[in-house]
Structure formats: C-alpha cells, structure tokens
Design a protein that fits this description.
zinc (chains A, B, C, D, E, F), 8 strands, seven-stranded mixed sheet, 40% helix, 4-oxalomesaconate hydratase (chains A, B, C, D, E, F), homohexamer, 242 residues, alpha/beta, 4-oxalmesaconate hydratase activity (chains A, B, C, D, E, F)
C-alpha cells in the first residue's frame, strides 16, 4: 500500500519502454480504479531498445539514458504512475545482490495487491526472463517473516504477466483480457512519449483492437474497442464463478 | 437465463454423482448469489459408480437407477439447483444425435453465463472426457445463428472445469479457488445424500479443507475454511487486475 | 499431382470461409509458384458462420448455402484455386464413411505435396478439430497400398495448420511465417468476396501486417509487408539449415 | 488371470505386426517370468502395413489377411503368447459396439495385471490412437461393478504404451527401459516371422541396441545389450524408491 | 554407499523442514529396507519458514537457526537418517562454488542409488528450484571421471522429486505412490518435531490419507492407509513390466 | 559473414566433442554449400567426457586437454570448419562476463545466418543447458545497436538445436531431418578423430541410419541413407509452403 491509498500495484519492467507497450492499459486502468501504481525499470533499454536514438549522429550512452529516462517519466505520468529507475544495464541485464535488495524494498514499501512483469521464457529476449525470475524471487523474499527490513513483509499478491512481442513463441496463454477502452487514450499518449521506438505505436494500437475483438468473442460487452492481454500466474481466490 | 432470474448456470455431469463431489460448492455458491442453476446428468453412473448398491443382494439395474436418481434429486435440492436426467448409459457413456440436441436445448433454454463440466482428458474415466467434449460441441451449436430451435442462440459463456479425482493425472491446473466456506454445510448435506458412494464424503470434505489452505496461501482471507478448485477454460474479460 | 501440373496442394476447410481468412495467402502464393491448389470445403458454415445472412429478413437455409457457395467460388477464383463442396453440415460438422471416402479420393486424385487444414484443438470450434482429425486420417488411408481405389496411393505430404482465430488458446505455435506480400492483393480480393463475414476483412488484413512485422523480426527481408502464420506438423526433410 | 497361471498381461495391437516390433521384448520377458500373455489384434494391417505382400502379382485381400494371420500366429508362438484376431479393418480401423464388448470380454477373461498398447497421439497413424483410446475405454468398462458379463470385473491394471515409430513426434517419453537381453533371441525370431515388413527387422534390432546403451546410462547393468522403451501411463504403487 | 551398508540414498532439502513434510515417508521406508539415508539441508529455512518462531518476542536469527537445527536433527533421528547442514541462507538461498563442491562431496561419499529433492519449477518458492538445479548439476559433476576428489565418481542414480505444496502449480505429476503405511508413525513423529511449522502436521497427515486412497485406486493393496507421492525424473531400468 | 564468403554459420559446443557427434553432418553440409562454419568450444569436456583418456595410467589434466584439443581440431578440419576453444571448464561449465563478451565477439565477427547449439533442458547434462542459454543471451547482445564493439550488430539468425543423447528426456522434437547422405563420409571421418569417446562412433552412425529411415517416411527421397535430426527454434520466414 502506498501511503494514503487503499490499493497498489507494482510493475517490474526489464527496459524502460516495456511497461508502456505491454502494460500501459493495465496501469491506467488500475490508476483509474484508485490504485497507486509504481513502475520499477531495471534498465533504460539503452543498448538494445533505443535504435531510433543510436541512428542519430554523435549519440552517446549518457544521452541515450537521459532521453530514455525522460520519455519513460513522461509516459508514467501520462498513465498516472510513479516510476523508479535502477539503471542495471541491458543486453544483458544483470541483477546483483544489492539491486535485488532494492527491488525487495520497493515491493515491501508498495505492499502491492498485484505485481506485473514479463513472461518466464522469451527466446528472443533473455532480459525479459531475468525480470520474471527476479520478480518471483523478490516476491518470495519480501514475504519472509524473518527478513527484517524497513518495511513489513507482504502477503501473497497475484502476478500478471503481460503480453510479449511474439506471444506464441513465449508460451503466453492469455487468461485475462483487460477492457482498456476507457483508458486507451492515456495508453496512446504514453506510447507517444516513446520517440526511440515510435514504430511500435501503430503496432500496439492495432494489437489493442485485435484483443478487443477477442474480448467480445469471449463474452465481453460489444462496446469494448481496446483490450490488453495478460496471464495470471496464480489461481484467483474468490466467490465468483465468472 | 431461467425465467424470473437474472443469471444462470448449467452443469453437465457425466454421472449423477459427479456434480455433487466436484462442483457442489460452486453450485451452492451460485445459488446463494442469485443464479438459477440447472444440472444435466448424462447418466446415473449406474454401472460404474454404484458399487455400494451392487453389493446389496438381489440388486437390479432398475433399482440402481431409481436410487441414484432419488439421491441426485435430493442432492440437487440441498444445493438449490434444478436437475434433469438424460439416462444415456455409463461405462461407456454414449451421446447420440438426439441426446446431443436435447443438451443444446437445455443450454439455450438456460442461457447460462457459465457452464461447468469435467476436464478434457481423464485417463481413468473416458466418460468424463466425453462429457467435456459434448459440452464444448453443444456450446458451439447453441451459439449458431442459423440453428433454429425453440430457444434463441446463446452468447459466449465461460466454461469451468471442476476438479477430477486425481488432478495431476488429468492435466488439471486450478486457476480459481472458490471460497465455499459460507455454503459448505449445503455441500456436506448434498454429499450425505449419496449413499452409493458414501466413502467419498470424508475424502471430499478433507479436500475442501486442503484447497482452503491453498486459497489462503494464494492471498485469500484467513477466514476461508473450505474451498473448491476449478479451472476456467476461456480468458476472463473485465476491468479488474485481480 | 493435378494433370499437367508439376506440383499440387490440397486445403481441407471446415467451413467455406476458413480457407480464405486463414490460408488465402498460402494458396495464392502456391498458385503463383505453379502449384495446382484444390480447396475442399466440408460445409458452407451455413449455420454457424453466416450471421450476416441470417440477419436479413426471410432468409432460409437454401439461400444461405447458395450465397456461401457463390462467395467461396468467387474467393477461390480470386486465389487461383479449384474448389469442391461436400455439404456435410456445420455446427456440428459430421463426417460419415462415405464423405470420408470422398475426401480420400480428393487427396489421391490431387497427389498433393502439401495439405493445409485447421489446428487439432480449438476450444471455441470443434468443427475445426474434426477437420484436422479427418485430414490426418484421410492422409493415412490415402497412403495405404492395400486400399484400392481409382487413384494410386500418395506419398507422405507435409501438413500445414493455418492460424486459428485465437492462436494461443489453440496451442498454435507458428513455425512458418509465409511472406505473402506479392499476393496480398489477391487475398484481399478473395476476402472481399465473403459478404457474410465482411467484419473480418480488416481484422485479417491487420493480422497480415502484424505477422509481417514478426517475419522481419525473425530475419525476413524488410520489404515484407504482409505475412501469414502457419505451423508445419511434420519435420522438413532437406539439405538446407535455414 | 488365465486359468492355472498366477499373473497375466494383455496386449492390444492395432495391426497384427505392431505387437512384434514394439512390444515383442516385453511379451517374451513377461512369459519368461510366468505371465500368461494374450495378444489381441484389432486388424491384420492388411491394407496399410502389408506393402511387401501387395507388391506380389495377383495378390488379393483374402490372401493378405491369411498370410498376415499366419505370420502373427508364428510370431506370438515364438514369444510364448496366445493371440486373437478381431478383423476390424485397418486404415481406417473402426471399433463398433460389438467389437468393443469383445475387447472388454478379453480383458475380463484375462484379468491382466498390465495392459500394453499404443500411444495416444501418433500423427502418422490414427489407428494407433484409436487402439489407445479403445484400451482406456475398455479398461474402464471392464472395471464397472454393474456391468454384468461372463467374467468378473477387473481391478486397476497398469497400462504400458510401447514405443511408436517416431517417438518424439508422438509425445512419447519413456519411463521404463526394459532389459530384454535375456529374451532378445525370441524377439528376433518373432520379427523374422513378419515377411511382409522384413525391412523393419534390422531397424528394430538396432533400436534395441540403442535403447540398451541408454539403459546403461540410466544406471542399468553393463551387461544389458538389448532394451525396449515403454511409457507407463499410471503411477506405480509400491514400497521401492528405485 | 555408506560404510557397512549395502544401499544408500541422499536427500537435498532447500530448507530444514522440507525433507520431513515431503519425503519423511520415503526416508523412513528406505531406512526400513536397509538403506543408509543422508539428508543435506541447504538452509535452516530461518527467514522464510520459521514464522512460528519469529512470532515469539525477542527472537533473533541465531536462536531461530539453533531451534530449526535441533528440530531437524530430532526429525532425522526419528526417521533413521543422518543429517548435515550447509547453512547457505534462505529467501533467497544461494549456492556458491564452495558449497557446491561440498554437495558434490556428500554425494560421492554417499554413493547413493537414489537422490531426492524438489521439483524444478515452483512459482511460489524459487529456493526449491535452486535446490533442484543444484542437485542435477552436482549429480553430473559427481559422475565426472576427470573430477578428482577424495571419493570416487558415482554411477547414474535415480532422482525422485517429492511433492510440492501446490502440486498442480508446479507441474508435478506423480509416477510413484509410495506405500508408507508401515512407517507412517515415524513420519508423524518426525513431523511433530517441527514446532515452528506445527500447523502443517494435520495438513500432511491428511495428504498421506488422500494419496493412499489414490494408491488403492491405482491398483495398490486395500491395506494401504498412508502414501506419499513422488515423481521419478529418469526412466527405470529393469525386467519388470509393473 | 566471414571475409570472402557469402554465408556463414556458428556452432556453440559445450564440450569439444559435442559438435562432432550431434552436428557433424550439418556442419559438413553447410561447408559443402559454401558456408564458412566456425565452431566455438566452451570447454574440452576434459573432466566429464574423456573417460577413455582418464583410464590411461598417469594421465593428467594438461594432457587430457591437449589430446581433446587436437582431436577436435582434426575433426573440425575433416568437416571443413574453423574452430576456437574458450577453455572455460566443464562439469560444471561456467561462463563469466569476459567469456561471454568473447562469445558475442565471435558471433558478431562471423555474422552467421544460423547458429547451432544444444537443447534448453537436458536433465543429464546441465552444461548443455548453459550453452543453450548462453547462445540465446549472446545472440541478443550481439543484436543490440547500442552495444559498440569491434564488429557490427547482427541480424536475426535462426537457431538450430542439435539432437541430445536421449532425445525424449530433453523435450527434443525434431522439425528438420537433414539429409547428410552426401557428406556422411566426412562426419564419419570426424567421429573417428575422437579417440576419447570412440564407443560413440557406431552409436551415432546407427542413429544416422535411423534418422534416414524417418526422413524417407517424412517424404524424403528414397536415396537418403543418413540423416541428422535438428530442431529449429524460431519460425522460418519464406515463400515456400514445403
């Protein structure tokens, strides 16, 4: 829980753009429903996901990181989320013990009801896998009663895996089609902040339409025009059959 | 939809006991929430699941079926559900074209928001598989606009698969742990109606406790004492991350 | 082999629209490369996939079938393929012994190098499953030396499964991204013949763009603008590593 | 149990050659250990697995079946097993209600401790799948207390799936490497009875050597020179960790 | 092999309680059959699995470890096993090169016929995964002829994975139901030593009853009242079909 | 691309023998087709795969490595490939940051169209898994535009996984049966260079025959006498249905 707010969520993003393309709708929706959402970016995607910037003459690493940070901050703001950057490097991402402890701290401080991250096995991008593994490990450590840190242990938050670029190649099977119709304008705005990857804006807008068609086919209201696919890792507990 | 009620569910049970042991909690819960629930029993389990009766001297098929019908009716009443019997035979169950049309009719008449049935692949019991396949086929046929029958086509109801006897052998992975604490007394009463399989009462009561422990471990309230595991077949559509 | 042509392919389509949406690009591409392509439609999709027609006042089954036939014939012509209709009924499709023998005959007469059909397990549409199973069975029977019919036995043609509507729900994992850029105009024309399902035209056009982006990501030429995803069932035999 | 013998096994073979190539070692081993083994051949493989015979001038169906029967009888004798032929046709195999009842009778009469058959999903040969499905269904029906036939119900025999021709394509994962060193000469003799498929003798002899190398790698004695791979379908119950 | 004993087994337990709950029956059974059994605990579970202790006022890490060690020693004694503690930390567990070499040494010194450990993928507890991976790596290194240490290389011991807390979520499919009826009193005694997790005693006692019911259903003797589920990782080599 | 040659391939081999047994045919075939092929050996297999050498009296590590290097060089020469040795140790293999950077350099320098390596999950040999993971990570890092090294970024080369020793235990499903008939003499020569593992020569020669039989069964020319099984990881992009 973030101070003064009833519910919260935390997103662990391997690179600073992932949370926008893959979970921007979920984030905006959660914010709309009163969640405090914190995004933790493990890296800026500075080496592997900034081709637009590297094509510019005289580009250097410091500038790439700076631009990527600013873009991600703007996107987070558009979505209504807080954002933190751990700057752990990308391609390959590496998560050492200190960084790991920081992630556990973020989780404990946030006391999230739900955690969002990548799938476990993306053959194209092993940084995504590491983010997934890191999240599961950090969730476990954050739960441990005997692990004494500034913030208290967490309960057992759900984990949502957001959609990878080539879903079938990653074993992704959506079991939640989020209706993001009411917040798609925010996701669009957030995507438009990402100049380094602007070729993806139409791609992910089209995907939202495609997932919306499927949402309707799965019993959703005909008014759904944009959706986002996610996969819950753990069983839901509740009293509702639907 | 059943006349006069806002929401409804339909359960397709291979044998007349299955809906009690495996979905009794879900049924009672749905009823409590205002659903009209209809159970359709494909057979009485008269040959394969009535060993208690067959041990009695002088038992014959007519009597077995009669007893099994009465027990199932009593169990359905305890749960608050309607019940219908198709008497298609068991071990092996066979579903011919006429029976299939009747099942489609039941589904269209009920207009269910959710359908409950067996898993797709139980190596111990192929009647269960046939019930699963029949449900998916009947759902599809009930949806067809060009299939003109007494009742209108249905939408796209969710399908819940209830827990098989040996879950891991059947590829069952629960993604819904239903909190049935508030209705467990009803499930217990329904189970107590099933004299032909009374050895299962403690087994399934213990299982409910076991699933409740897991429900709490997955973030459920500590007050949960009984739960039932189910697996949703299709993605959920909605606006909630949890 | 079709008389006078060196190579041939056969498509087994559960409903008369499936081959257009899901394999239109593959068909047009094969035709362009000199294959003779025969499409065998098991049904017209008259009950389950003609909602556009059934919404018209006074519509009847005979008219629906007639329109669906004409549309499919026009689409096949646009793609450059032959087409045959077995009129076996849909929702549910049923394939009796006589129809099965006819399918075997089509396969033997065609002597295809490649067979195209649906995936094996589509939870939304069991007619698709039956088409898949029928194809594998018919392939086997067409191979049998001791099965004496008008045409000689076939060899061991590859089987391509085309993309289902909700790929991840059907266990579809593409291992072939067909570059259909050069023939997309033909697929588009074929799709435009399908008035009963015209809402799908943009959907499948967008999908082709999406698969093209993925094709480029998997090493395809940057000039690829439209692609179609397929899954080969059997190993490829050859001398090329790529 | 077969009269006068303590233990028994039953093999359900889709075609009259399958039990020789794929389970000949298991059968001979069981016989050596005192099992009575009964082989039930659903068909002669007369259309699909008798290419050697069909190449002979003037061959006709009656002769093919006769030769196949004689070969299979000789092979069964070499292995020490009884054999029965149901002559249900092959490519495609069909199992009607009467044939099914006969299979249940064979199982009840035999009272087997173990059943052997094909895998569940062979994309090359759907007759194999049908044999698998038939076995599981017949096992279930043979267990039913309320199914009154000449022989009493059976218990819960293990099911072994023998190795298909292209194991990886059929989802076959061996969990039992049978040491058939002591009986390989019998399997070889049995294989040599199968003139219609003589090209397979070296193939399956080499396979036995290959599986033996793997058996040693999995902790078997270095003296193992021939082995056969099988997959148990159900859990083993016992007191041994190994 | 442990000096003076014919057969031996080694258990690799992530936390000091795991071997009791999940493999206590297997251990007691092995001891009863003359195996020497050594348990190697990678950690005390001091941070993540000692909530009972941490609730006590003034508790500190040294005391938790001391209590957990004493409890595990008492449990091992009740089961008849030797025990060693590596104290590598938990939540998260970490296995460095030195600890790894120690584990290899334990395995070589023991010369086990069978190794027991956790499953490969427990989404709730990544320490379990690391124990699994460590075991497979250490088994491989212990086999290497060119790896010269105080003890000789091992052969190819079987690996048993014991049952995780939420079996279906971990891909656990039991293929061995161990009849632990004759030793359940010892397992119960061992469980009663674990004061820090005493809430689990009834849970795992009930589980043993449940697995026993399944054991009987899979052909076990009706006298089985308690069982433990395990999954063998490698094929069995032998001459027995059952 | 290697200077002066149009196409190239890179093989990442955990131990210095793996590329010979498992990919020798693919390498020779690629060379025959004009590819420049570079083999990168992560270790010499000096501890775990040199049992023939270690049996010789007075053997030491330096000599084992020297012999293994010479054998692998001779084998590479027989196949027509370049070879490099990283000497990272085996059983267990370890890949530190510097070695990782070297692998990335090899890949960028080679600019391969195709990469060959081990499967992802071999329960018998975790060095193989690490080679697989290392390859995928290095491929990703070699692609990163912002990773500035001596050689330019690569495109998106295909990855082939070669056949592990016990294919079914490793989840290996071949989707490419390479016809190596024309180059098998070269593979045989290369295998004969491996004196430390000479027991494998007949094993892998027989395997090539076995895979050839399967290649013919999958539609390959009857002239195929030797084949090698591989599994492509990524979809193929192209215009050919076959």
């Amino acid at each position: 829980m973030i101070a003064g707010q009833a519910r919260s969520a935390l997103v662990l993003s391997a690179h600073s753009g992932d949370f926008v393309w893959r979970a921007g709708g979920a984030i905006a929706l959660a914010v709309e429903k009163g969640y405090a959402v914190k995004v933790v970016c493990l890296s800026f995607g500075e080496r592997g996901e900034s081709q637009g910037l590297w094509k510019q003459p005289g580009m250097d690493m410091g500038t790439v990181k700076k631009v990527r940070r600013e873009e991600a901050e703007a996107a987070a703001q558009a979505l209504g989320a807080e954002i933190a950057f751990l700057d752990l490097g990308d391609y390959p991402l590496e998560v050492g013990p200190e960084a790991f402890a920081t992630i556990v701290d973020h989780i404990r401080e946030t006391q999230p009801e739900v955690l969002l991250t990548h799938v476990s096995n993306d053959p194209y991008n092993r940084d995504h896998n590491l983010a997934h593994e890191t999240l599961l490990r950090a969730r476990m450590v954050a739960q441990a009663q005997g692990n004494k840190t500034a913030h208290p242990p967490i309960g057992a938050p759900q984990v949502l895996m957001f959609e990878p670029h080539q879903s079938e190649m990653c074993g992704f099977v959506p079991n939640l089609l989020l209706d993001i119709t009411s917040v798609f304008d925010r996701k669009r705005k957030a995507m438009e902040c990402m100049s380094a990857q602007s070729h993806l804006i139409e791609y992910y807008s089209d995907l939202a339409v495609r997932r919306a068609v499927q949402a309707v086919r799965n019993g959703g209201a005909r008014s759904i025009t944009h959706a986002e696919a996610h996969q819950r890792l753990f069983p839901i507990v509740g009293e509702e059959l639907l």
